[in-house]
Amino acid sequence: MLHLEHQVQKDIGVWRMQLTKIARRSLVELRVTAFDFGSETPRVVIRDPKLLATLPPPQSCKPIGMKDLIIDANFPRTLDQRVYHLGLRSGEVANRIITVGSPPRADAIAVHLDAQPKPFRLFSERGFLTITGRFKGVPVSICSIGMGYPNMDFFVREVRECLIGEMIVIRLGSCGGLRDFPVGSVVVPRASVAVTRNFDYDFYGGGSTKSEMPYRISKPAVADVELATILYRSLDSMLAPTRVIPGVVNASADSFYSSQGRKTLFPDHNSDLINHLLSSVDDLATLEMETFHLFHLAASWSGPPKPPIKPATNGTDGAATQSPVLDTLDLSEGDRPRIRAASAQMIFASRTSQEFIVPEEVERLESLSGRAVLQALVEVDIPGDRLHPDAGSVWT
């Protein structure tokens, strides 16, 4: 069932008359669950799609939660096929997607969308914001998902269930720099490793056995090479003179604090963690919390993408070194629509100098980087038979 909340700032009299007429009908039949005429912004909660069509268009319209009948406990949906956390259904998310961490960043990118059709906007009770429209005539979505592995997992799995055809995802987020790249630089990593807290380690007592380490480092998951290349070129073109660094490796941590080597009052045993990461992972350059899981799920769905042909740069002088992180893959294309993923990471903090980006630079960098990511997405070719149908979509 559709479970929507309408909040009206204008034309209160029109709504009051409409809702009074509705209230005279059978509330059981119409499944109207709440009326509130006592406030300055009257509200009605309605769970009948046919009834929604009889109302004047609201100024804001959002799912207010999944408190209706859920038809499948394995993959929860409402009767009208809205997924549990993002609140989306088929036709509300496009094949080309930017994912960001916060609604303000999503809004800053959305100003670049075409004026027509008017962008669709949905904010779920769980805090996920989706804005879908067109950029230069091409359907795109901007999804604000919050932070960390679990939210990335919600996003990738639930969008995949709503989408027909290819799923092209670029993560645009902030990160900490581990090398001498200037704050305000943008990194396009070729791969990412996961850094996770070892729950078998005795953090209170200082270790259970000598063989247990407090943190674990995964094998790398890799970006889609073509997508990462298009992304780098778009960023490098639009952000000049801002430095854009391709071909390095990212680490995604399961904590902003302990697994990123930050000191708090907790006994995290992480004083040497960053040095350990740098000595263990070739070409490691950044720390954040989402990219690994995006790359990992893309590979789990589609198979690992091919690695870049060119070697990564090592150090700040641009000298190239061969990296042993990735092996050459030669995968044949199947009929299954792919998930292709890349990441653009804005260095907001230097973990070597402790410098932090200033607010004015954040605003500039987010706007320019967002437009560059949109441009990269529309340059990715998707065959017509691997696109979500326009019919019934919010971008028509």
TrEMBL record:
Cellular component, GO annotation: cytosol
Domain Nucleoside phosphorylase intervals: 96-299
Database matches in Pfam families: PNP_UDP_1 (PF01048)
Domain of life: Eukaryota
InterPro entries, alphabetized: Nucleoside_phosphorylase_d, Nucleoside_phosphorylase_sf
Any one Gene Ontology molecular-function term assigned to this protein's record: uridine phosphorylase activity
GO biological process terms held by the UniProt record: uridine catabolic process
SUPFAM superfamilies attached to this UniProt entry: Purine and uridine phosphorylases
Coiled coil spans: none
PANTHER family assigned: URIDINE PHOSPHORYLASE
Protein's name in the database: Nucleoside phosphorylase domain-containing protein
Native species: Jaapia argillacea MUCL 33604
